[in-house]
């Protein structure tokens, strides 16, 4: 097909198609008789992919890496971080515009405005730094223990190993069993765990606990001890206290039935918390 047909198929202008060709993202074949470009269905699919990535505001060089076969996930993850930073900058600019409109453009004090902008930037920087530190601690604490319900009953060491390997594969974990048995040991990215099996009302549950929890602190050793301790308490407080409190208030408000709320609270504690908690390591 020619470039006009491709333009109709993709909604990408001829100028942009030629631009992508010039950048080496697209290399259509040429007719040997007249040297006209001849586009294939593969070229159309590639252009549609480029169109999607450009709509995400992805740079040309990153698009080239994806087309060349590099892993897409880390590229998109880095771009997401960039967009979030950009979003924060835009929100600050929007807040400043509203402030100027409220005060009146005619009575702007440039010194005052610059001081306010500096203050906003410093506050935003501190807040993002605290948020990033909390995320780091929360991700690490989630590695301390996790549980899952296996498809089999894990009655033998072989079944136990099979369940662990299947869980690792389904959750894209670098899980390697180092010691088989009914209390097997395994590693995830060099961190050692020991697993054991429990039985609940709905079948077997495999619980995995890190064997050397003190090593987890190494993952956020750059965070001051006082701050990391506060973040750990917040993380576990949210799970152990905030969730049941929110559930209780929700069912009281929705059903207007106190005893139903109490029943749902007991169900959460006995059923979800101890039988089917599932902290996925990702």
Folded structure, characterized:
The chain is α+β, with helices and mostly antiparallel strands. The chain folds into four domains: 3-67, Multidrug-efflux Transporter Regulator, Chain: A, Domain 2 (Orthogonal Bundle); 79-141, no CATH class; 145-217, no CATH class; 222-275, no CATH class. It contains nine helices and seven strands. The chain has helices at 3-10, 14-22, 41-55, 60-67, 72-103, 110-141, 157-170, 225-255, 258-275, and strands at 29-30, 37-38, 145-148, 175-179, 185-188, 191-200, 203-210. The strands form two sheets. A five-stranded antiparallel sheet has the order 3-7-6-5-4, covered by helices on one side. Strand 4 (175-179) and strand 5 form a beta hairpin. The longest helix is centred in the first third of the chain and has 32 residues, at 72-103. The two termini are 44 Å apart.
Task: Please give a handful of descriptors for the protein shown.
282 residues, 9 helices, single chain, 4 domains, Multidrug-efflux Transporter Regulator, Chain: A, Domain 2, 5-stranded antiparallel sheet, disordered C terminus, alpha+beta
Which strand order do you get reading across the main beta sheet?
3-7-6-5-4
- Distinct helical segment count: 9
The percent range for helix content is 55-70%
What's the number of domains?
Answer: 4
Structural class: alpha+beta
How would you characterize the largest beta sheet?
5 strands, antiparallel
Which word captures the global form?
Answer: extended
Strand content: 5-15%
Q: Measure the end-to-end span.
A: 44 Å
Q: Overall mean pLDDT score? A: 77
Contiguous uncertain segments of 5+ residues: 272-282
Number of strands: 7
Q: Could you give the order of the helices and strands? A: HHEEHHHHEHEEEEHH
């Amino acid at each position: 097909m020619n470039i006009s047909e491709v333009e109709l198929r993709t909604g990408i202008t001829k100028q942009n198609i030629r631009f992508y060709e010039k950048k080496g993202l697209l290399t259509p074949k040429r007719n040997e008789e007249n040297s006209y470009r001849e586009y294939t269905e593969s070229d159309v699919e590639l252009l549609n992919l480029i169109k999607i990535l450009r709509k995400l505001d992805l740079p040309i060089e990153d698009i080239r890496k994806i087309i060349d076969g590099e892993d897409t996930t880390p590229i998109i993850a880095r771009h997401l971080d960039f967009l979030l930073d950009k979003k924060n900058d835009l929100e600050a600019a929007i807040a400043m515009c509203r402030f100027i409109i409220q005060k009146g453009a005619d009575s702007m004090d440039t010194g005052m405005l610059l001081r306010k902008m500096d203050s906003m930037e410093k506050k935003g920087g501190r807040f993002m730094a605290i948020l990033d530190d909390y995320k780091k601690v929360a991700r690490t604490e989630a590695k301390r223990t996790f549980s899952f319900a296996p498809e089999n009953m894990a009655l033998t060491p072989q079944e136990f190993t099979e369940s662990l390997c299947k869980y690792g594969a389904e959750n894209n974990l670098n899980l390697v069993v180092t010691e088989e048995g009914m209390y097997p040991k395994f590693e995830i990215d060099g961190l050692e765990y020991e697993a054991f099996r429990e039985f609940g009302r709905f079948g077997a549950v495999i619980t995995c606990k890190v064997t050397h929890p003190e090593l987890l602190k190494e993952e956020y050793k750059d965070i001051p001890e006082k701050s990391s301790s506060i973040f750990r308490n917040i993380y576990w407080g949210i799970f152990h206290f905030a969730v049941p409190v929110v559930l209780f208030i929700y069912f009281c408000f929705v059903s207007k039935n106190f005893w139903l709320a109490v029943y749902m609270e007991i169900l959460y504690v006995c059923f979800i918390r101890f039988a089917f908690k599932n902290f996925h390591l990702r």
